[in-house]
Amino acid sequence: MSKAVLVDITRCVGCGSCVVACKLWNKLQYRQDAPATGSEAVLAAENWTAVKKVESKKGSEKVWRFVKEQCLHCDEPACASACFSKAIKKTKEGPVVYDEKLCVGCRYCMLACPFSIPKYEWDKTFPRVRKCQMCAGRVAKGEKPACVEVCPAGALTYGKHEEMIKAAKERISGGGYINHIFGEKEAGGTSWLYLSDLPFEQLGFRTNVTTKPLPQYSESILRLTPAVGLGWGAVLTGLYVYNRRRNEIAREEKEKR
Amino acid sequence: MSAVNANKWTFKMTPTRYVLAALGLLGAVLMLYRLVFGLGSATNLNDHWPWGLWIGFDVLTGVALAGGGYSTCLLVHVLRVKKFTPIARSAMLTSLIGYLLVMAGLFMDIGRWFNFWRPFVSWGYTSVLFEVFWCVSLYTMIQLLEFGEIATEKVQKPWHGFFKKIMPVLFIIGIVLPTLHQSSLGSLYVIEVGKLYPLWWSMLLPVFFLMSSFFVGPAMVTVETLLGSRAHGHKVDLGVLQSLIKVSGYLMLVYLVLKIVDLYYRGATGLVFGGNLESNMFLLEMVAGIIIPLIICFTPGLRKTTAGLATFSVLVVAGVIINRMNVVFTGMAKSSGGFYFPSFIEWAVSIGLVATGVLGYLFIVENFNILQGHQTGAKPLVKEKKATNQAVKYSA
Question: Which one in B116, B176, B223, B237 has a CA-CA gap of 20 to 30 Å to A105?
Answer without folding.
Answer: B176
